[in-house]
Amino acid sequence: MQFPHLTSARRTVLIAMVAPAALLGTFSFVADEVIEGDTIGFDRAVTLALRDNGDIMDPFGPAWLEEAGRDITSFGSFSVLGLIVILVLISLLIVRRPRAASYVGFAVITGTVLSNTLKQVFDRPRPEMLQAMRVFTSSFPSGHATVSAVVYLTLAALLARLCTNVRLAVLCIFTGIFLTLTVGVSRVYLGVHYPTDVIAGWSLGAAWALLCWVAAELLDLQRR
C-alpha cells in the first residue's frame, strides 16, 4: 500500500532543509566578515543614515517615532517573548497537544541558549550610540533578532499547520516574518546594535526555527 501524502510531505521537508543551510551560510559569512573587521564601513554607513543630521546619539524622526521604536523593540525582549511562550505552552497543554508544546519549548529554549552562547564566543562590543537603553550582553549576534525569529517563526509554523484555510495559514507565516523583521530594524534604529548583528541574528534564528520544524515533521512522519 502506498501513501502519496507521506511522499509529498517528505519532499516538502527535504526542500525545506535547503533554506536552513543557506541561512547558516549567511550567518557564517557575516560572522567571518565581522571578525576580520570588514563590516565597519557598512555598519557605520547604515547607522548614520538612521541618525538626525549625522548626530550619532539621535535617531532620525520626531520623538514619538523613537518612542515607537522602543515599543516595537520590546516585542523581542526576554520578558515579552517569555510571557508569550508560557501562555502558548499552557494553551497547548490545555487542549492536549503535548507534542506541539514540546516542539515549541524545545525550539525556544535551545535557540535562546544558542544565541547567548554565541554572544559570549564573539564578545563584540556594543555600538557607542544611545545611552538611554540599558543592555546587558555583547552585540553579536543580536539576541532580540535571533530569539524573536525563533519564537515568532516557530509559532507561525505551528499556527499555519493547524489552519484549514490556506490564506489564513499564509497570513500566520507573514505575521511571524513581519514581527521578526520589525524587531530587528528597531534595534538598529535605536542604535543598540550594528546592522550586521541583526542580519546575523535573523539568519541564525530563522535557520534554527526551520531546523526544529524539519525535525518535528520528520518525527511526525516516522510516528505515522
Name the average pLDDT: 85
Which H/E pattern describes the elements?
A: HHHEEHHHHHH
Helix fraction, binned, reads over 70%
Could you give the distance between the termini? 14 Å
Shape by Cα distribution? globular
Structure, described:
It contains 9 helices and 2 strands. It is 75% helix and 3% strand. Mean pLDDT is 85; it is low at 1-6. Strand 1 and strand 2 form a beta hairpin. The longest helix has 29 residues, at 195-223. Helix 6 (98-122) runs antiparallel to helix 9 (195-223) and helix 7 runs parallel beside helix 9 (195-223). The protein has one domain (4-223). The protein has a two-stranded antiparallel ribbon with strand order 1-2. With 224 residues, the protein is mainly alpha-helical.
Which SSEs are present, and which pair or pack?
Elements: H1 4-16, H2 18-36, H3 40-49, E1 51-52, E2 55-59, H4 63-73, H5 78-94, H6 98-122, H7 143-162, H8 166-190, H9 195-223
Antiparallel strand pairs: 1-2
In short:
The chain is mainly alpha-helical and 224 residues long. It has nine helices and two strands.
Q: What key phrases describe this protein's structure?
A:
single chain; 224 residues; mainly alpha; 9 helices; 2 strands; globular; disordered N terminus
